[in-house]
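User: Reviewer 2 asked us to show a designed sequence for the structure in our supplementary figure. I'm pasting the structure tokens here. Could you produce the per-position amino acids so we can include them in the response letter?
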């Protein structure tokens, strides 16, 4: 009996050590990408709350006061909006923001790529980078993706999980961008077998996650075709 107690105590001790050595467990978030948002701030905020959004990538042809109202009514922290293009680009989150920036990336043939980027802390060892990008009319989707990947390689931390929403001027341009990004990122609308909406139904919006070694997608679905709205459930791993 005494030997059994010693063995049981040793097993419990080792199990406790294993939990501590493994570090914090995976963290799950409901994330919404919404572009070309229309309506009053209260209505948009209500739709985000109904979706249970923890993280939001949001664009709208509105001023900073409108975005601030959306953030206040959802209880989320606002980064942005970046007002470098025709629409304001903003990120909202329940996580602590470590830094954010709005910028314009130069694209070959005098094109531009409008970007809102923010880095968040999941915990002291894990970070999440959210990026919302807009390709203006007249800019090549292929060249825009090249600029995006160059920016990602040089300015996004190598240990960060990434959520990326991309608005293109046309569905065709969005399809082209998605095909070019397929090798680097997963598509939220393709992350499980339950989605009843192929990516093309999202119109000008595409929503990605990666690297898949750091962040997984449990499910994704189209909430609205107009304005384009995609909901995903993502899991940031231990890494």
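Assistant: Here is a per-position design you can include in the supplement:
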């Amino acid at each position: 009996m005494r030997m059994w107690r010693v063995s049981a105590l040793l097993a419990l001790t080792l199990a406790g050590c294993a939990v501590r050595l493994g570090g914090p467990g995976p963290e799950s978030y409901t994330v919404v990408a919404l572009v070309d948002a229309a309506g009053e701030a209260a209505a948009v905020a209500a739709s985000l709350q109904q979706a249970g959004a923890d993280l939001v990538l949001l664009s709208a042809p509105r001023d900073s006061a409108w975005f601030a109202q959306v953030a206040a009514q959802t209880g989320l922290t606002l980064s942005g909006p970046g007002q470098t293009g025709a629409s304001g680009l903003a990120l909202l989150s329940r996580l602590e923001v470590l830094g954010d920036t709005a910028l314009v990336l130069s694209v070959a043939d005098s094109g531009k790529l409008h970007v809102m980027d923010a880095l968040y802390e999941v915990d002291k060892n894990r970070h999440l980078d959210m990026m919302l990008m807009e390709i203006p009319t007249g800019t090549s989707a292929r060249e825009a993706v090249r600029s995006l990947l160059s920016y990602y390689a040089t300015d996004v931390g190598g240990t960060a999980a990434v959520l990326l929403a991309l608005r293109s001027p046309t569905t065709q341009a969005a399809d082209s961008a998605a095909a070019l990004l397929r090798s680097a990122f997963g598509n939220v609308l393709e992350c499980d077998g339950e989605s009843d909406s192929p990516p093309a139904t999202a119109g000008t919006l595409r929503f990605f996650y990666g690297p898949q070694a750091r962040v997984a997608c449990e499910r994704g679905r189209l909430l609205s075709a107009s304005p384009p709205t995609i909901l995903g459930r993502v899991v940031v791993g231990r890494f």
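For the response letter, you might also mention the following. Residues 26-236 form a domain with the Deoxyribonuclease I; Chain A fold (CATH 3.60.10.10). Residues 47 and 175 are 27 Å apart (CA to CA).
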